[in-house]
Amino acid sequence: MTATVPPVPPEGPVPDPAGRVELPPGVTHTDTRFANDDLLPVPLARRRWTTYSFTVLRVGTIAFRSTLSLRP
Fold first, then answer.
1. 48 Cβ partners below 8 Å, 6+ apart?
2. Is 21 helix (H, G, I), strand (E, B) or coil?
3. pLDDT digits over 14-65, tens only?
């Protein structure tokens, strides 16, 4: 008879089918010197940005930079 070992829960980030990453449940940030509520990762359920959002942001920043070079 062979014994099977139950899977060990992951220690690192929990993967998402879309490639996004979320911290495991129950993780708390005790060292708040470099992080606060504004800088902590947003849970997957609250994320609203899509590929389109990032594309529009990138195109907008490129357009803004090119207009700066047109100044006299």
1. none
2. strand
3. 667 777 778 777 777 777 788 787 888 888 888 898 889 999 999 988 888 7
DSSP secondary structure code for residue 14 in this structure = E
Q: Are 16 and 22 in contact (CB under 8 A)?
A: yes
- Tokens representing residue 11 in the block: 């220690």
What Rg do the C-alpha atoms of the chain give, in angstroms?
21
| Paired tokens of 5 | 């070992």
Q: Which residues share a beta bridge with 15? A: 21
Answering whether pTM is above 0.70, one says no
